[in-house]
Write a structure and sequence with these properties.
The protein is of the alpha/beta class. It contains eleven helices and eight strands. Strands 7-6-5-4-3-2-1-8 form an eight-stranded parallel beta sheet. The protein is globular and about 45 Å long. The structure holds 1,3-dihydroxyacetonephosphate. 1,3-dihydroxyacetonephosphate (13P) binds next to β8.
Length: 251
Amino acid sequence: MSRRILIAGNWKMNCLQADGTALAADLASRMKSGSVKCDMLVCPPFTLLKGVLDAVAGSGIAVGGQDCHAAEKGAHTGDTSAWMLKDLGCAAVIVGHSERRTNHAETDAVVKAKAEAALAAGLMVIVCIGETLDERDAGKTLEVNRTQVQGSLPDGATAENTVIAYEPVWAIGTGRTATPDQAQEVHAAIRSELRGKLGEAAANGMRILYGGSMNAKNAADLLSQADIDGGLIGGAALKADDFWTIAQSCP
Ligand code: 13P
């Protein structure tokens, strides 16, 4: 089954209004004058969502949040609901990024609840999973990722509404990318876990992104792997030239 590549930028806690909207406008103008063979998504911080949505309007670039609360509304000071993201015009949201699992003690159960809220609000959800270096060194890579798939995948997940992002924690922001073979091995294991959970068709159709020091130089090799269906890009998504080169590396 052919899966359309998704190139997604996770801007994390970066950019003020001027540079964030300029970056978005730069990407939008490249989209309008060039062509890419993939879906494009940018996930800026909450404060920039509106400006970025305005800057990319009509370009084909979708916009998403980096997190959401599991509840629709209520007494959750400082949080943002999936419905608020949808209301603003977002198409997607990332949940379960390792920085949130680590910094905010988010468990698989919390991630699953957030993912289900995203689906209920009508957003596409990107569910992040990935092993730490200690887990890899202990030979537990596949087991950890399978467990996170089982624990974090939302009920109601389909190939259309859910994307998995495999982001080995040791590769994030370190410049140490998983080799294409290392990544492909885990992606294939994730897809086999999805097959058991969702059935053949959904597993074959669901996109599994790689994230962790993906850049303009290594993207083509990673994206040519059979089970790598795109990238969730941090640092390189903050530079229009690099992000654009990655998008043009799609097979
Ligand atoms: P880097 O591309 O900076 O390693 O970040 C990856 C990531 O965490 C994307 O969500």
